[in-house]
């Protein structure tokens, strides 16, 4: 059951990235990066069994942030992709600060959400600290690596090479940094290492699956540019 839900969630997340790009352009990708930064750090608190292995949730939606920056790198360049990284970082910091203040409010007798919020957001600062460091390091590497590989493999047919080479290494960096900062002292070493391995494997699968969506995004832009050129030609005629 978990495996089926994971595949469905994968398709929904990737589809949502393309919809955000289709309707709002690069602004939509910036919005998605902010959404993924918040949701990934909440989902990661839940551990599940997937394909016979223990893993945390959040791998898919976090992986889509790499998809978003890769699309930005491919179409708009390194500067716009790096801007998305800073937007995600800003979102994490502000969310943490605001929620920590919210937890300080004394709940009314009728309140039913305080305990649940405490369970999630009291642990949130450590998760965010781990995520912030891992996020900035890995995403910045991804943006840099994508640009580097784009110079070596520059044709549209080679998008899959630069996308996978940049993302898969970046995901490894992210997994190692995040798991050790977030979960040392929380889980036994064998559980922590199991989470690290399975987290990276799942992120690797997500990274491999996102490649067609970079091509689709590129085609969407090329198609829109072609249509605009046709309209301009017709108006001049």
UniProtKB/TrEMBL annotation:
Pfam family, one: Vut_1
GO cellular component: plasma membrane
Location within or outside the cell: Cell membrane
Keywords: Cell membrane, Membrane, Transmembrane, Transmembrane helix, Transport
InterPro entries (UniProt xref): YhhQ
Spans through the membrane: 6-24, 29-45, 51-72, 84-106, 118-138
Entry coiled-coil feature ranges: none
Membrane topology: Multi-pass membrane protein
MF terms (GO), sorted A to Z: transmembrane transporter activity
Functional description taken from the UniProt entry: Involved in the import of queuosine (Q) precursors, required for Q precursor salvage.
Family of the protein in this entry: Belongs to the vitamin uptake transporter (VUT/ECF) (TC 2.A.88) family. Q precursor transporter subfamily.
UniProt name for this protein: Probable queuosine precursor transporter
Organism, scientific name: Anoxybacter fermentans
Lineage, broadest ranks: Bacteria, Bacillati, Bacillota, Clostridia, Halanaerobiales
């Amino acid at each position: 059951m978990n495996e089926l839900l994971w595949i469905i969630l994968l398709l929904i997340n990737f589809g949502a990235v393309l919809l955000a790009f289709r309707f709002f352009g690069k602004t939509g990708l910036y919005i998605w990066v902010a959404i993924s930064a918040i949701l990934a750090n909440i989902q990661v608190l839940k551990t599940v069994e997937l394909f016979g292995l223990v893993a945390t949730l959040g791998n898919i939606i976090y992986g889509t942030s790499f998809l978003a920056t890769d699309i930005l790198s491919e179409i708009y360049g390194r500067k716009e992709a790096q801007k998305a990284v800073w937007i995600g970082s800003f979102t994490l910091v502000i969310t943490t600060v605001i929620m920590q203040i919210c937890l300080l409010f004394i709940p009314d007798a009728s309140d039913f959400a305080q305990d649940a919020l405490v369970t999630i957001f009291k642990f949130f600062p450590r998760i965010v600290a781990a995520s912030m460091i891992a996020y900035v390091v890995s995403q910045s590497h991804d943006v840099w690596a994508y640009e580097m590989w784009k110079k070596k493999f520059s044709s549209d047919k080679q998008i899959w090479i630069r996308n996978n080479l940049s993302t898969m290494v970046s995901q490894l960096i992210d997994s190692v940094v995040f798991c050790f900062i977030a979960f040392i002292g929380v889980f036994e070493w064998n559980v922590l290492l199991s989470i690290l391995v399975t987290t990276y494997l799942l992120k690797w699968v997500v990274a491999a699956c996102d490649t067609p969506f970079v091509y689709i995004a590129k085609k969407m832009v090329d198609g829109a540019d072609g249509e605009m050129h046709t309209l301009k030609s017709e108006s001049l005629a």
